[in-house]
Design a protein that fits this description.
- This protein folds into 3 domains: 73 residues, no CATH class; 127 residues, Aspartate Aminotransferase, domain 1 (Alpha-Beta Complex), CATH 3.90.1150.180; 249 residues, Aspartate Aminotransferase, domain 2 (3-Layer(aba) Sandwich), CATH 3.40.640.
- The N and C termini lie far apart (60 Å).
- The chain is an alpha/beta fold.
- It contains 21 helices and 14 strands.
- 43% of the residues lie in helices and 17% in strands.
- The chain is globular and about 90 Å long.
- Helix 3 crosses helix 4, helix 3 packs parallel to helix 5 and helix 7 runs parallel beside helix 15.
- Pyridoxal-5'-phosphate binds next to helix 8 and strand 7.
- Pyridoxal-5'-phosphate (PLP) binds next to helix 8 and strand 7.
Length: 489
């Protein structure tokens, strides 16, 4: 047996390893600098092991090259990659919210790989305005005079406040001082936008006289924030939007309405609960309406600002617009999505968000019957697989209390400690080539099938499920239980 210093000396040189056939193959694939760096890291690791353990035996060259291959393989996996969203939340913020329709993906690819008339007027060859590509569609769909598009709805809210109410007061009801997950809190955005928040009323009740009494010389606007991710029930009162608009206009103030999700069409036509539309908000007298592009609208991440032309001009001239503007790729996708809205018959077929939200439970149930045998086989004697009723959520804070009847598969471990065994199942599914994300309920791992589009792809990778060392998997991975609950934003 070698002493540890001798063992370390017994490790090969980088140069010797670089001449191995297996390593030359790796150089062909990954390039010499990365392979050399990885070999050095592998050797450093071995040196540390040998220094710490006099019993350790220096590995053979082949074993070192294999370690190098495994590390490079890991490194070459994209960090951001497709997953199966079987959480039951259709617009899952942590899983990227809305999926682009085909037409939008094609438009985005074209804008990515070719020059485009982003800010170029093809008529007179002069400089153009990037928002003009979508403005006509937004006018048509919302009834507003003009529109601006920015990075997301948080940016939209920031920009309207910073443009229309700098150093002045904006009146908001205490029932609407929302936090939309992460760091988006109305009071904080208000402060960063340079406005003074004037809170009025109480958490559950705010009256017209509260608004009237709060208006003073320093008031710049009245704002309404849609209670998108919560609901206040019981002894409540709020002021109708048309009344708020009337109060604001009596005092020559703009009325701003942050809708959050803001679906462009009435969802009731599709058997879904009603969500306020920008068209209704404009018709009710809002001077500016803001909403997200990647929530119910089903498009790319962006924030839409629609409303009165004079106010929109002010917003457009704010230097911060440049910092918050949308890029050509998402703008191309947005234009394609808005075009789809022109034809409601095509919309439900081609807009994935709407298609998934309206998927009938019977259809999902039939899919559950089809995939059940393969899941049961993959579980063997470790867990029982059964079809269960699920209730999907829209997500992204839209209609938080409305559930969509759905179906899924419950995998219930036969182990005694069911909850840690269910954790282990969720870890094994996340380790698949295309990770599968479900949720845990009462000791079972649940896959809600509402959003399972690629059934064949899902089934094809089940034989890869690795559940041998569940105990070690649990020990190594610390499952973040909050990650799947934190979608309501
Ligand atoms: C979601 C939401 C926002 C933030 O929109 P993002 O597109 O996520 O930036 C702002 N206000 C309301 C009311 C929302 O629901």
């Amino acid at each position: 047996m070698l002493n540890s210093a001798a063992a370390r000396r017994a490790l090969p040189s980088i140069d010797r390893l670089l001449k191995l056939d297996t390593v030359i193959t790796l150089i062909d694939r990954h390039g010499r600098p990365l392979v050399t760096e990885t070999l050095r890291a592998v050797l450093d690791g071995q040196r540390a092991i040998l220094a710490g353990d006099p019993q350790a035996i220096p590995p053979a060259d082949d074993a070192l090259s294999e370690q190098c291959r495994a590390r490079l393989h890991e490194l070459s996996q994209p960090s951001l990659r497709p997953v199966f969203n079987l959480t039951g939340t259709v617009l899952h913020t942590n899983l990227g919210r809305a999926l682009y329709p085909e037409v939008a993906a094609r438009a985005a690819t074209a804008a990515m790989t070719r020059a485009v008339n982003l800010e170029f007027d093809l008529g007179d060859g002069a400089r153009g305005e990037r928002d003009s590509h979508v403005e006509v569609w937004l006018q048509r769909l919302t009834g507003a005079e003009a529109a601006v598009v920015v990075n997301n709805n948080a940016a939209a809210v920031y920009l309207i406040l910073n443009s229309l109410a700098p150093k002045k007061e904006v009146i908001v009801s205490r029932g609407e001082l929302v936090e939309i997950g992460g760091a988006f809190r109305i009071p904080d955005i208000m402060a960063r936008a340079g406005c003074k928040l004037k809170e009025i009323g109480t958490t559950n009740r705010t009256h017209a006289r509260d608004y009237e009494q709060a208006i003073g010389a320093r008031t710049a606007a009245i704002m309404k924030v849609h209670a998108s991710n919560y609901k206040i029930e019981g002894f409540t009162a709020s002021v109708a939007e048309s009344d708020l608009a009337a109060i604001a206009h009596r005092h020559a103030l703009p009325f701003l309405n942050d809708l959050g999700s803001g679906m462009l069409i009435d969802l009731q036509a599709y058997g879904l609960p009603h969500e306020p539309t920008p068209r209704e908000a404009i018709a009710d007298g809002a001077d500016i309406v803001t909403f997200s592009g990647d929530k119910l609208l089903g498009g790319p991440q962006c924030g839409l600002i629609v409303g009165r032309r004079d106010l929109i001009e002010k917003i457009r001239k704010n230097p911060m617009k440049r910092a918050l503007r949308i890029d050509k790729v998402r703008l191309a996708a947005l234009e394609a999505v808005l075009r789809l809205y022109a034809d409601p018959a095509r919309l439900v077929r081609e807009l994935p968000t709407l298609r998934l939200l309206t998927r009938p439970q019977t259809d999902i149930n039939a899919q559950a019957q089809r995939v059940l045998p393969a899941l049961a086989a993959a579980m063997g004697d470790r867990a029982d697989a059964a079809i269960v009723e699920c209730s999907s959520q829209i997500g992204s804070g839209a209609l938080p209390v409305d559930a969509l009847p759905s179906a899924g598969i419950a995998l219930t471990p036969r182990a005694k400690r069911k909850s840690s065994a269910a954790d282990a199942l969720s870890i094994a599914f996340r380790a698949l080539p295309v990770p599968v994300i479900g949720h845990i309920r009462e000791g079972a791992f649940i896959l809600d099938l509402r959003c399972l589009d690629d059934e064949a792809g899902f089934l094809a990778q089940l034989p890869n499920l690795k559940m041998q060392n569940l105990a070690t998997q649990i020990a190594e991975a610390t499952p973040k239980k909050t990650a799947q609950k934190d979608f309501n934003k």
